[in-house]
Specification:
single chain, alpha+beta, Chorismate synthase, AroC fold, four-stranded antiparallel sheet, 20% strand, globular, binds flavin mononucleotide, binds ligand EPS, Chorismate_synthase_CS
Length: 384
C-alpha cells in the first residue's frame, strides 16, 4: 500500500543506527529539533535501564534535505550509539578478541529461535538486531512523517493507560490535553502514575519486569484514508500490523476493540447526526475513527499491549544453546519496564502509516501538489 517506505539498519551496540525513508514529497520543511524531542521522549520513562544514561540520541540527516527542505529523494537518518566505544572488542567486525559467547537463551526474546534459524553459535549475533534499540530509528522516521502530517493539519499523540495491572482512571483524563504534557511515564493521570512507579520499583527490587498498555491518537485525519476495496488497502489492518511490528507488542485494538465482545449492536456503533454547523457528527467514537478500513473523520484511536520485558535479573529457567544443559537465562543489562518508550514508538509507527496513506491519496512528488489535492478533496466533501 502506497509509495512511502523505510528500512532501518544497525546493531544495538554497533557504531550507528541508520534509516532510509523514501517517498516523502519535495518541499517539506524539517526540523532536527522536533525529531530530537521525540528521540529524547523515547529514552525517558521510569523503569528504563542503565543504557539510557549512556545514550543521548540525536538525529543526523545525511541525505534528501537541503536548507531544511526535503528534495523528494531518499531521506537518510542516523543516530550514534555512544555505547559502541565500550563494546568495540565484543562487536569487532573482523576477529573477536573478547571471544566470550552468550549461550544462555532468554525465554521471550529472539535468542533461541534466532540462533537456530541463522545458524549462529553466539546469541549476541541475534540479540544485537532483535534489540529494541532499533526503535530509535523508527522514531526518527516517525518525526519526518509527523512533519508531513502537521503540514496537512494532523497530529499524532500517545499516552500510557496501564502498567503491571495499574490502570488510569479514564474519566479523570482530559483527552484534549494528551500530547501537551510531559511526565515520566507519559501518563495523564498523576495518581495512577505514582502507583505505576511504585509497582515498577517493586518489580525492580524483585528482579522482575512489567508490561502494559498505551494508546495512540491521531487527530485531524480527513475522511477516506485507506480503502474498503482490498484487504491490503484497509488502514485498520496496516495500523495494527505496524503496531505489532514493535518489539514486545502482543495485542492491538482499534477503538472499542475487545470491548465489542460485551456490547450489543445498539450500543456498539456510533450513531450519526446532522447539524448545519457541525455537518455529519457522532456522539461516540467506538469505531476509533475507522469504518470499512477507511478513516471516518473522527479521532483514530489505537491501543497496544506490551508484554513484560524478557530479560529478568532473577532469570528464568532455560537451556544453554551449546550443551542443551539446564541453565538460568543470561542477565544482560536491561529495562524493567519500557511501556512509555514503546508509546513514543507507537506514535512513530502510526505517523508512518498515516503519512503513507496521505501520500497515496494526494500524491507524493511535491508538497504543493499534495496540499492542493487535499484541499480540493476537502472542498468537495464540504460541498463547496
Ligand atoms: C522500547 C523498548 C525497550 C525494550 N527494552 C528491552 C530490554 O531492555 N530488555 C529486553 O530484554 N527486552 C526489551 N524490549 C523487548 C524486546 O526487544 C523484545 O521482547 C524482543 O525483541 C523479542 O521480540 P517479541 O517480544 O516481539 O517477541 C524492549 C522493547 C521496547 C519496545
Ligand atoms: C538500547 C535501547 O533499548 C535496549 C533494548 C533491549 C532489547 O533487548 O530490546 C535491551 C537493552 O539494551 P542494553 O543491553 O544495551 O541496555 C535496552 O537498553 C534503546 O531503547 O535505545
Amino acid at each position: 500500500m502506497g509509495n512511502l517506505r523505510f528500512m532501518t539498519a544497525g546493531e544495538s551496540h554497533g557504531p550507528r543506527l541508520t534509516a532510509i525513508l523514501e517517498g516523502i514529497p519535495a518541499g517539506l520543511g524539517l526540523s532536527e529539533e522536533a525529531i530530537n524531542k521525540d528521540l529524547a521522549r523515547r529514552q525517558q520513562g521510569y523503569g528504563r535501564g542503565g543504557r539510557m544514561k549512556i545514550e543521548t540520541d540525536r538525529v543526523e540527516i545525511l541525505s534528501g534535505v537541503r536548507f531544511g527542505e526535503t528534495l523528494g529523494g531518499p531521506v537518510t537518518l542516523s543516530v550514534i550509539n555512544k555505547d559502541w566505544t565500550n563494546w568495540t572488542d565484543r562487536m569487532a567486525a573482523f576477529g573477536n578478541p573478547a571471544g566470550e559467547k552468550v549461550t544462555a537463551a532468554r525465554p521471550g526474546h529472539a535468542d533461541y529461535v534466532g540462533v537456530q534459524k541463522y545458524d549462529r553459535e553466539d546469541i549476541r549475533d541475534i540479540l544485537e538486531r532483535s534489540s529494541a534499540r532499533e526503535t530509535a530509528m523508527r522514531v526518527a522516521v516517525g518525526g519526518v512523517c509527523k512533519a508531513l502530517l502537521s503540514a496537512c493539519g494532523m497530529e499524532v499523540v500517545s499516552h500510557v493507560v496501564e502498567i503491571g495491572g495499574i490502570k488510569v482512571n479514564e474519566d479523570k483524563i482530559n483527552r484534549d490535553e494528551i500530547g501537551k504534557g510531559s511526565s515520566e511515564l507519559n501518563c495523564y493521570d498523576a495518581e495512577a502514575e505514582e502507583k505505576m512507579k511504585e509497582r515498577i520499583r517493586g518489580a525492580k527490587e524483585a528482579g522482575d519486569t512489567l508490561g502494559g498498555v498505551f494508546e495512540v491518537i491521531v487527530r485531524g485525519a480527513p475522511i477516506g484514508l485507506g480503502s474498503h476495496i482490498q484487504w491490503d488497502r484497509r488502514l485498520d489492518a496496516a495500523l495494527a500490523g505496524a503496531m505489532m511490528s514493535i518489539q514486545a507488542i502482543k495485542g492491538v485494538e482499534i477503538g472499542a476493540g475487545f470491548e465489542y465482545a460485551e456490547l450489543p449492536g445498539s450500543k456498539a456503533h456510533d450513531e450519526m447526526y446532522y447539524d448545519e454547523n457541525k455537518k455529519v457528527y457522532r456522539r461516540t467514537n467506538h469505531a476509533g475513527g475507522l469504518e470499512g478500513g477507511m478513516t471516518n473523520g473522527e479521532e483514530i484511536t489505537i491501543r497496544a499491549v506490551m508484554k513484560p520485558i524478557p530479560t529478568l535479573m532473577t532469570p528464568l529457567h532455560s537451556i544453554d544453546i551449546e550443551s542443551k544443559e539446564a541453565v538460568l537465562a543470561c542477565k544482560e543489562r536491561s529495562d524493567v519496564c519500557a511501556v512509555s518508550a514503546a508509546s513514543v514508538v507507537g506514535e512513530a509507527m502510526a505517523a508512518f502509516v498515516i503519512a503513507r496513506a496521505v501520500v497515496e491519496k494526494f500524491g507524493g512528488d511535491a508538497m504543493t501538489d499534495l496540499l492542493s489535492a487535499m484541499n480540493a478533496y476537502k472542498a468537495r466533501l464540504a460541498g463547496e
